[in-house]
Amino acid sequence: MALRASAARKTLGNWFRVGKSMAVGGLGHRQARGLQTFSLPDLPYDYGALEPAISAEIMQLHHQKHHQTYITNYNKALEQLDEAVNKGETAKVVHLQSAIKFNGGGHVNHSIFWKNLKPIAEGGGEPPHSALGWAIDQNFGSLETLIQKINAEGAALQGSGWVWLALDKEAKKLRVETTANQDPLITKGTNFIPLLGIDVWEHAYYLQYKNVRPDYLKNIWNVINWKYAIEVYGNEVA
Amino acid sequence: MAEKRHRKMVVSEEAAVRIRQCQSALEPYMSQETVERHWGRHHREHLNSLNTHIAGSELNEMPLEEIVLASYNKGDYLPVFTHAAQTWNHDFFWQSMKPGGGGRPSGILLQLIERDFGSFELFLKEFKTAALTQFGSGWVWLTYKSNRLDVGNAVNPCPSAEDNKLVVAKTPNAINPLVWDYSPLLAIDVWEHAYYLDYENQRAEYISVFMDKLVSWDFVSSRLAMAFARDEERARKDASNSEEDDLVLADSAAREMFLDSDDDGAETE
Lengths: 238, 269
Hints:
Number of domains of chain A: 2
Largest sheet of chain B: 3 strands, antiparallel
CATH architecture of the largest domain in chain A: 3-Layer(bab) Sandwich
Number of helices of chain B: 9
Oligomer: heterodimer
EC number (chain A): 1.15.1.1
Radius of gyration of chain A: 19 Å
GO molecular function (chain A): manganese ion binding; superoxide dismutase activity
Order of helices and strands of chain A: HEEHHHHHEEEHHH
Structural class of chain A: alpha+beta
Structural class of chain B: mainly alpha
Subunit structure (chain A): Homotetramer.
CATH topology of the largest domain in chain B: minor pseudopilin epsh fold
Number of strands of chain B: 3
Family (chain A): Belongs to the iron/manganese superoxide dismutase family.
Helix content of chain A: 40-55%
Radius of gyration of chain B: 23 Å
Organism (chain A): Dendrobium catenatum
């Protein structure tokens, strides 16, 4: 019994180390006491640069407070997870999953969201051409139709969540998906790659648009960074 | 039918009148702007959508609580559920507060809080933690749990008095404890629209202020009394049903005997 418990601990430990070494990429992170922690990524533009579509006040709170809180709580949960894994406390490991999903998801989603936005002066809102533009026409008829679909699904989403333009890389099709709360797109399937994610939590628009979520959705297209979506799409279908 | 529909408007209008009289009455803890938006837009839009959805349907004939349960449809909920439940939830939320609220509960309510949570302070801690940790949009409730299981053709298992207790519950989005057959006593709305204009991302501060300055313990006590009354009513019904069952049993036993004797007679013929 004791042997089996220690074997399980070893397996989990190895899994965790592999997980850590694989967790590299564009998200801010650093190693502390051998445990990977994440830090708030900088925005590639000023807080006020997306006005009038999104106010500076919203951007600052959203980035400095909301995203930071997800990161802080994600790091906390990872630390607790590390401890629980090392002690072989499986019940605790399981218990931590909801905090990891919520806060880790919040970090993943917001990291994508910031890249999905761009000031108008720098090309925000410029419609996609190239392979992605063609794929949008193929899948939805036109960019207009896609935007209408995303706006409709985003407006209809109950409570907090995200609406996505996703690439289903198995079916090689573009899809509009929604996820609840901070569930990242991958919870809908590992075949889905997020090209574009729009935050429809109230904190993303309430100070400016109040209860009128459809207006927020309408205006955000003026600052959408299609270049990012084109790049991701290009890398995936290449 | 039109009259009934109007009656349902009144359910919410009662709360509306109270709120309209005092949209600034919860200042500085909940701003007039927040109340105007929250009651005047969010709540009203759910009410309007509810009325549009139920117009001409059998739901239109039901009281709001029954619409909530019918449209919840045992978890496979109908589109109107969100609007019915959110109309009910907001009504309940407005009543959960009063100007000059806060302080401590008293009487039987306090006794039950102390019995079921250890102390009022421990209850506060549990309630605040629940409100802070509800992931995403939703509600947090103090409820009186004396639910019955809906088990169709089986005999309803009857919880004993010791099973009945106060429970803190979190619900996502529009769900409320009515769907579990719990009796809600107190609600705090933790959708961001409930506090964002006043507290921005500081949900913890909103929750603290709600409990310290806004909560109406009179209302909570009155709901507890309603929950007790519901239990008594159910116990009365159970008693009379079991009498009826005995009668039905006696009657069918008699009929069986009669049929048996009839059959016996047929066989001998």
